[in-house]
Design a protein that fits this description.
Blueprint: H1 3-11, H2 16-20, H3 22-29, H4 36-50, H5 54-65, H6 75-79, H7 85-99, H8 113-120, H9 125-148, H10 154-165, H11 171-179, H12 186-195, H13 224-229
Helix pairs in contact: 1-8, 1-10, 3-4, 9-10, 9-11
Length: 231
């Protein structure tokens, strides 16, 4: 299993496939090609996830990646926000996927980072690095914010920056992250819901009040984790 494939699985919303393929994930994390400190941190993260109850792991994921916009794994949210340019960017990204035989289900958002990593894990390494280099400033800021929140997920984002740039220089981003107001507090979330009280179309909440598509729904196809781990 490639590094991009592994990181994509671990960054995705934790589902049953994660625990079902735990040994395979541990083997991939213990990659001798990685520097020893990185390998140890990656193995520790996988072991911690596997030792965590699924509901607790899912709650921790939601608390980090689904509260506020600053830690969203939807890349275009950081580039385009809610502007109309985001829609065209998604269309262009889907078309790029399709040109290389990578099809999405109707409910998958193409700019979801674990999904992008699934695609890039199937592409030549030079091409994958080039793609990630174009968004490494976003991933680096996510890494800095995750580190500021003492999240074990920070190592995954740092690995992606290293993969793209060949080095990790997050000092300026960490300083920025430390000075940012948090957008995942109850007060910030209340303000966000007031701003987004009326939403229609694909971004609207479902009838069961599940979150909008910040966490891509994958009911009609196997979850990304299952697709990635299975041979």
């Amino acid at each position: 299993m490639s590094l991009l494939k592994l990181v994509g699985v671990l960054l995705d919303y934790p589902q049953d496939a994660l625990w079902q393929h735990g040994e395979e994930l541990l083997e991939a994390a213990n990659d001798p090609g990685l520097p020893l400190p990185r390998r140890q941190a990656l193995v520790q993260l996988v072991r911690e996830l596997l030792d965590t109850d699924a509901l607790d792991a899912q709650e921790r994921w939601l608390m980090l990646f689904d509260r506020g916009r600053s830690m969203s794994l939807l890349l275009f949210e950081h580039i385009h926000g809610e502007s109309r340019d985001r829609g065209q960017a998604m269309v262009d990204l889907v078309e790029a996927y399709r040109k290389n035989g990578f099809e999405l289900s109707a409910k998958e958002l193409p700019d979801y980072l674990p999904l992008l990593l699934e695609y890039l894990s199937q592409r030549p390494q030079a091409e994958a690095r080039d793609w990630l280099r174009h968004v490494s400033h976003i991933i680096g800021l996510l890494a800095a914010r995750a580190g500021e929140r003492s999240s074990p997920y920070a190592v995954l984002l740092e690995l992606l920056v290293e993969y793209a740039e060949g080095r990790l220089e997050l000092d300026a981003l960490r300083k920025r992250a430390s000075e940012e107001p948090r957008d995942d507090t109850p007060e910030a979330m209340d303000r966000l819901w007031e701003e987004e009280a009326v939403r229609f179309g694909a971004e609207a909440p479902g009838e069961d009040c599940t979150p909008p598509t910040r966490m891509p729904a994958r009911t009609s196809t196997p979850p990304a984790a299952a697709r990635q781990v299975q041979p």
